[in-house]
Structure formats: C-alpha cells, structure tokens
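re: ur question from earlier - yeah i can do the single chain one, its not a big deal. heres the input i used so u can compare w yours
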Amino acid sequence: MVAKKRNTLRQKSAVTASKKPQEVLNDIEMDMGEDPKAFLHQYKESKKDKNLSRQQMFLDQIKQKNGTDPSFAGISKSAMRRRKRKLRDDLKPKMGELLTSLGQEEDLKEQFEDNFKEEGVVEPEPQKKRKNEPNIRNQKGAKALSVQESERMKQVLSNSSFQQNTFSALRDVIKMQNR
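and the output i got, formated as tokens:
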C-alpha cells in the first residue's frame, strides 16, 4: 500500500501565486523597493569600529568619574588628595593674619594706646608646656579637659583687660603664642 502524497504549504502557495496575475506581483515589488531583503539585514559593526567605540566609552567613564572638578582631570587619586589637602590647609585661619588684621584697625589702636597710658604695660607670662596633659581621646581625659577649659574661660571672662578691650587682649595672647 502506497502512502497518499499530501499537499504541502509550499505547493499550495506556489499554485496560488501562479494563479495571480503578474501585474499584482510587480506592484508588490515596487512597494517594497528594489531589494526587499535589504530591510531584513541589520548593520554589522566591524571589529575596528567596535574596539574604537569601547575605547571611547572607557575614556568617557574615566572622565565622568573625575568629572567632580575639571581641574583634576587626568590626575592620579593621590595627587588629587594632596591638592585638596593643600587647599584645606590654605583655608584654615592663620594666627599671623589675624594679628595683622587686628593691628590694622585704627579704633583698636586708639583704645590700645589709651589703655597703655593709663596702665603699665603688662606682658603675660608664657605658659609652660605640660607633658602629662589629660588625653581627650578617652572619657576620663575628656572630662578633665572640659573642667580645665571651663575654669580657664571663667578666668578669661573675669580678666579686667579682656573686659575693657577684647581685641587688644586677643592680640597680646596671639603675640605670646607666636614667640
């Protein structure tokens, strides 16, 4: 017994295509363009283009990471840290600058001269450095330092020269520290 041959879908479509007039097929081809398969293929990048695009993406990522400040572009992390540390140190107040700014005030000079004429010039004694100071890093030392500072603050506030002319007293203390 021989198996009956079945019609396949390809055969059916071929029969229907042959039955359609040739003009309809030409119209369809015109609508699709010259090469209907041209839209089926995607653009393929060459290896060289891929490598260039990867390299550019990598460089962009590096620039983006260092994008916090454009002045630090292309500089190592340690160099950035050194520059930032230097900038921080430059921002800190310096005792010499404070002394010069206090010395430039004419009002303070007049008050300072008046006070010296009235009172004798009293130079404060330089403080000796204590080697066994309490350590602020532990609880006991921090408590001891806070007690010392509160006592010292009371002495400063009760000082007559500080009460009469605050800025001249500050200038005297700064001069002593710079010696």
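The chain has a mean pLDDT of 76. not sure if urs matches, ping me
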